[in-house]
Amino acid sequence: MLFKNNTLICAPMAGITDPVFRSICKEHGADVTVSEMVSVDGIVYGADATFDLMRFESTERPIGIQLFGADPQRFAESTALVAQRFKPDFIDLNAGCPVPKVVKRNGGASLLKDLKQFERIVYAMVNASSIPVTVKLRSGWYKDQWVDVDFARCAQECGACAVTLHPRSQTMGFSGHSCWERIGEVKQSVAIPVIGNGDILNGKDALAMLRQTGCDGLMVGRGAYGNPWIFSEIRAVISGRPYTPPSSQEKLRLALSHIEHYRYTYGEYRAAREMKKHVSWYIKGIPGASQWRDRIFRAVSTDELSGIVRGVFS
Ligand SMILES: Cc1cc2nc3c(=O)[nH]c(=O)nc-3n(C[C@H](O)[C@H](O)[C@H](O)COP(=O)(O)O)c2cc1C
After folding, report:
1. Per-residue pLDDT tens for 190-246?
2. Is any atom of ligand 1 closer than 6 Å to the C-beta of 224?
């Protein structure tokens, strides 16, 4: 069973959870990974960039490919194509993305405004798919007008095999704290596994969420920024084992190999640009980090970024 017994999942994050980042999280204790969100419109139009987002290495399994969009027919076509061509372990529906670009085209969290349309989409995906379908929800469009229980029940009735809940409304964006009590409410309302998500920044948070909500698995997003060790920390804490945080040498080694792996996969130009944020996350908390960060954002090559990392940790 994919999502039972405290499964640890690396959250889908557009622009972050590419195959390189996902592999690193997997090596550091994530049980399951999920692709960045992929547009069903892009799939139906056959856009190359869209197809690139769905590639993964077998070491990342079990992996889900996440789809977003608004049209049930496109979801059906995309689900069938993705299952057949990419053969992930599951296909996830994005019913939570709050960003204007997505919601103004009625995708992501917009789906939470129309239960009937959501039902049509989940049903279309399950019918078109030879592999499990999961759903990732926010708790509603407006704060305190929660629809998560109704949507989770509907997903279950349509045949989804798990739901993930990020208990914020669309209008909250990423502000405040996620409302973990909603995860407990949803867990009480469905029989399929419920994965809790939102504001897990260390092992203690993870244990608190498990105890407070009774959820079956945990999904970690921003807490893994520059800290993929969070997955092994969580595993240690929830199993009652001691956890030793990474040394400076381990951080140095991982940051350098992340830069190198990214450059090898995507080339120098893209690596020099995209690795800046990762490098600045790896050095978070180090004395003088803000001055280093200025240098990182002025850097023009991966050699320069690697040099900065060596300077920081030496
Ligand atoms: C930069 C960024 C990109 C994200 N992209 C996606 C996405 O593609 N699909 C999705 O379902 N959620 C996406 N999310 C939401 C995360 O998966 C997660 O639900 C949210 O960050 C809360 O978890 P956290 O507090 O552990 O970060 C994204 C979040 C961030 C910060």
Report:
1. 999 999 999 999 999 999 999 999 999 999 999 999 999 999 999 999 999 999 999
2. no
For residue 258, the CA-to-ligand 1 centroid distance in Å is 21
Token readout for 290 is 């803000």
| CATH number for region 248-313 | 1.10.1200.80
> What 8-state DSSP symbol labels residue 283?
T
Residues noted as catalytic: 97
Domain positions in the chain are 7-238, 248-313
Please tell me the class of the 7-238 domain: alpha beta
- Among left, alpha and beta (phi > 0; psi -120 to 50; other), residue 5 is left
Predicted structure pTM score: 0.97
302: its two tokens: 């991966």
* Distances 67 to 3, 60, 296 between C-alpha atoms, Å: 19, 18, 33
Q: For 107-119, write each residue's pLDDT tens digit.
A: 999 999 999 999 9
Taking only Cα atoms into account, the Rg of the chain, rounded to an integer number of angstroms, comes to: 19
Ligand 1, residue 36: give the atom nearest the CA: 8
